[in-house]
Design goal:
There is one protein chain. This protein has a single domain, classed as CBS-domain (Roll). The protein contains 4 helices and 3 strands. The chain has a 3-stranded mixed sheet. The radius of gyration is 16 Å and the shape is elongated. This is CBS domain-containing protein. InterPro entries: CBS_dom_sf.
Length: about 70
């Protein structure tokens, strides 16, 4: 266990694994990202994590938006 205490999170995390989107990303960017991954981290202008958008939540949102138009 002591060996693991010497690791820094930054040296373990793969930044290319699940690229984040800015909080003001447009819908086209969101959909394109969701086609390639199941979730997308959302970050602010300082690259601080604001939340995680899941594919399920995006589909629910789009379905609700469609229902409101009808």
């Amino acid at each position: 266990m002591k060996v693991q205490e010497g690791y820094r999170l930054g040296s373990i995390v793969r930044r290319d694994f699940c690229p984040a989107l800015q909080i003001d990303a447009d819908s086209e960017q969101v959909v394109t990202s969701m086609l390639n991954q199941n979730f997308v981290p959302i970050v602010d202008g300082r690259n601080a994590l604001c939340g995680i958008l899941t594919r399920k939540r995006l589909i629910e949102f789009l379905a609700q938006a469609r229902d409101k138009k009808e």
